[in-house]
Amino acid sequence: MSWADYLRSKPTVQRRWRRIYKGDVPYLTDSQNEIVVERKIEGADLSEAASDDDVNPTPPFPVRRQSIDPDSLLASVKPEVVTEKYPNNLVITARYTLWTFVPKNLYEQFRRIVNFYFLVVAFIQTIIDSPVHPFTAVSPLAFVIFVTAVKQGYEDWLRHKNDDQVNNRPVRVIRDGKLTEIKSKDITVGDVVKLNADEQVPTDMLLLGSSDEFLRCQINTSNLDGETNLKLRYCPSGLPHFKKDGDFIQLHLIVECEHPCANLYEFNGALFIPLKKFAQMVMSPIQSGQIFSNGPDNNQQDPNKKPEEQKHAFSDLSERVRKGSTEFMTIPLCMENLVLRGTRLKNTDYIYGIVVYTGKDTRLARNSEKTEAKFTTIESAVNYYLLIFISILVLLVAFCSVMFYAVDWYPEVAGDEGPWYLRDNKNPTEMRKQIAEIVNTIGSFVILFNYIIPISLYVTVELQKFLGSKFFVWDNEMVDDEGREPLCNTSDLNEELGQIEYLFSDKTGTLTQNLMKFRHCSIGSERYEYTWDHRLRPYENTGASVQSREGSQDSNYIDVTDSDEVKDFFRTLALCHSVQVVARRKPSFDTGPADFKRLRKSKKKELSNDTTSTNETVKLSLTDHRRGTWEYQASSPDEKALLESCDLLGITYKGEKEDIMTVDVAGKIEKFRRVMHLEFDADRKCMSVIVENSKGELWLLTKGAESSIIPKCDDGPTQHTLKHVTDYALMGLRTLVVAKRELTVEQYEEFAADLRAARRLIKNRQERVRDIYSAIETNLTLIGATGVEDQLQENVPETLRAFTSAGIRVWMLTGDKLETGVNVAISCGLINASTKQYIVDNMSLADGDAIVSRLLGIQKEMDASGNGEDSCLVIDGMSLAAAFTSCRKLLRDVSMTAYTVVCCRMAPLQKSQIVQMVKSSPGRPTCCAVGDGANDCAMILAAHVGIGILGKEGRQAARCADFAIAKFGFLRKTILVHGHWYYVRLANLANYFFYKNVVFVMPQFFFFFNTNFSTQPLFDPLFLMFYNILFSACPVFYYGLTEQKFSATTLLQQPHLYKLNKRNALMTFKVFLYWITSSIWHSIVCYYLPYLAWDNFHNMNDVSSFGTVVFTLVVLVVNVKMAVETVFINWWTVASHLYSYATFFVLSFVYSEMDLRIIGVRPGDFRHVYFTMMSSPSFWLLMLLVCVTALLPDVTYSAFNRFLVYRGLKSKH
């Protein structure tokens, strides 16, 4: 069945389809007597008008409709209205615009319960007869709102800058036959885009033309799937060559493809080209000697043949023609024809592509989640305690209001009018007065007690987080050799770094450098070792590593050309690959000036000869000097390492031209014709090539995983090789098994015929091709195996061991194959010799019962053995999808029982689903995700804390992350040091704010007992206004920036200290009660000691004087309390305290002793009070007595607590 017939059959369609019209083409319709022609409109979407049973709907855009002759395509009808458009190509991560900033920011700020509460209090203060001036409530609120708005506006401005950089990137498109430069955001569906080498693909597009002679290109997909190996993409088979900008004037086609989805590995669609237009399209290319694209088969027609000898190309295409009211040439499309947004063009001068998905429809966008506001554990605790304080406020107001009217029972209080219940309550006027009095009384108590809610808490926290994040950015120990500094994209989550319980890490570019080194090989039944000086020798199991024997003078080396068996092994490696030999290119940079600025800041003075750009798939090795102006570009970093080792051993792959592969074997040139390339796939777990040697013999050469290759071998040292491979795996090496098979001409022709037929299928095309590949890859002869080391980043094992000591569980989530993921987990120490591995793989959605049974078995085994703390669950993406559907809760329970989890072959969306699964588990553990590519953005956004690596895979992860660092090794200090400090600082800061406001408000409550619960304020409005803003702000603010209970060295050497603060330990209800109890005790001492000693203050006998004494003692006690809690003390700490006291004394003195009526300030009863108080010896003695009495319990408790902590440190050390 052809693609067109498949569409005509109208089955129950599981996927929705869209059509993109380019040029003057007829509209596809089911009617044989009616044809629809597009009226110069490109890129309209038909999909929304389609039902699930109709793949040829009525077009929702202007068309001409008339029954016509197949030779006539012009008609005249009334146009219809356009009802659907594609999304634009804008990238928007910013939260505000210039017009929405003020209303949206105010809305978000007043959603905070504290801000809204003080807004209500300020309103009440303006409408009642307030005991204090309304300015005392309005000014702190305005200050808080303003500072927060400035901070959030600045951060959003940085997001706008990043968005503009991406959206305004210049892109070249062909419009009206001319190459036009536009901005990336202006790309629309149907545009033909031209990309040059090393440029990033701005949108999803179908490959139409390439500078490559075989109409293909190489792309780096690391931003999507995390794999830095290069992948091949091909022009659709049968499409004429488009090599010039002017060729696209003759472009007339319809692209029909599936609706936008998140699948990175599958794509289905078709090209429909009217044969009349197709003839016009191909005439110019044929006359100019160009040929047709034949797609991934690489079965190109001979370019040396004359055009008339290529007529069969057109007749072959006629087999895929659909006939109706007009004739269409139909070309099936697959994933190998689609170039996705976020990938980068490599080793190809230029390509052309027609845009099929833009903006939010691209696969990259579909695999990204919307940014949601993240809340920290401390912020949640603060909100909870605020509700408690509001409840306390309500109780205080209710109690005092009741007592206010209760005292009317006493005649000396009620006066001539008598108690309130004996008054004339039937008079309406009197009733209104009484209601107004009640409202005014309650409002007055609310105003006097509202200071128990710390309004300055939020603004202090905002400033502390913002400035504190700068210390992270300024940490010189976290700057790498290339000058890349850490980044902090948001300061809202600093303290969450100190609460991490689960760490989800990408593999490629995060844990590893993706820099492979060939280490060992097994040939025949013998093991060989590739030494540091690039020579081969028999392996001796002395227990020492290659590195430890680098200085060995052992001369037991072999020449690979002396043994036919060894030579055949390395010749096979030199032929079985997808490597290209290309001219060496100059380094390119991702983000232009930003990276050049970083390069200039590098500590390296010169670039060495083997330096590449930050985006190169694999770094050049030490062998590059032998190749001069050319280099290997590999579809796999393993293949590059193997070919470079072959080169140094004397067997050099020289490249391929017109399917002829040239190999230099010890100076002797051997040539082979590459007949076919059988690309790698995850199900077969191998790749193969079919080559023809100079004798005319056909050989199938294959390499892949031992689990796939060895069962298919009929000959060779299988047992020895399997043992060697197992040993390599235990050494943490990536292994490949190499085998071969000789084919007859008949076998090859039968295979090629079956493959051609399979590639014409629409349904189950990939499965059928895979089966045919597997059928030919049998009856193999085993040659040997290789062991390649995937070099880890610096300090990765040490960092992971430190996290284990800190109680942080590490999960590795990778898009790479299962064997690779396990090998890397072994190399970095996530899996050791004693770790029990539970593997779940190759289970599809149809295997629901099987995966439930498998997970139940694993759970039962772990429960029975009790070794969950020393176990690792290994699962692949396909099985994970099945488990999410069949047994999500069981999967979560099993995964969280195992100490380590390795997830392989994962799509970006699956990574975020894993993070969400753990986040939503009972206990709500704090999760951190770290990655370096765009494929990691979804999980970074899903985690409580997202950390990006400034690696080789671009800056997408760093941009969407909360923090960014240059290397994984820096994560150790980020979490164990900065995270610990941030949490301790902010937790104690929050507790302290609640404490000092209780100390401030409770004396007012005690004062009401001495005033018969009148609404007389104890403190002057000056003190109410500046207590939180000036008099007690500086010491705690400096504490929040610099406090270090333990030094960085201590925290790094003893990572178990990180456990001290787990599960929000400093914000538990027990700790909260300690702070509240301490505050009540301090308020009692600050109020009642002056009250009892008041007879000694002979010259001070008014309320203002008493309130001033009490307030001064409150300021003294709360600031000394801060000093008691501080461990890291320096001159700046002392200065912050002196500033606080000096501000209080100077401002109070000026307010009390100077005539400020000229500026509208009337101190009233406060006049000369302060000077009188300061001149009293009793006051100074009282200060000492209050300070000692209030803080002696705190000093004792603090000293005892520190003694216990340090004794524990000493014992563990």
TrEMBL record:
Membrane-spanning ranges: 113-128, 134-150, 384-407, 438-461, 992-1010, 1022-1041, 1071-1091, 1103-1120, 1127-1151, 1179-1200
Catalytic reaction equation(s): ATP + H2O + phospholipidSide 1 = ADP + phosphate + phospholipidSide 2
Binding site for Mg(2+): D506, T508, D932, D936
MF (Gene Ontology): ATP binding; ATP hydrolysis activity; ATPase-coupled intramembrane lipid transporter activity; magnesium ion binding
Biased composition (Basic and acidic residues): 303-316
This protein's record includes keyword Translocase: yes
Biased composition (Polar residues): 290-302
Protein residues bound to ATP: D506, K507, T508, E639, F680, K703, R734, T814, G815, D816, R905, K911, N935, D936
GO cellular component: endoplasmic reticulum; plasma membrane
Record-annotated P-type ATPase C-terminal domain positions: 958-1204
Region (Disordered): 290-316
The EC number(s) this enzyme carries: 7.6.2.1
Residue stretches making up the P-type ATPase A domain: 168-228
Localization per record: Endomembrane system; Membrane
Cofactor: Mg(2+)
Single GO biological process annotation from the record: phospholipid translocation
NCBIfam families: ATPase-Plipid, ATPase_P-type
Family: Belongs to the cation transport ATPase (P-type) (TC 3.A.3) family. Type IV subfamily.
Name listed for the protein in its UniProt record: Phospholipid-transporting ATPase
Species for this entry: Orchesella cincta (Springtail)
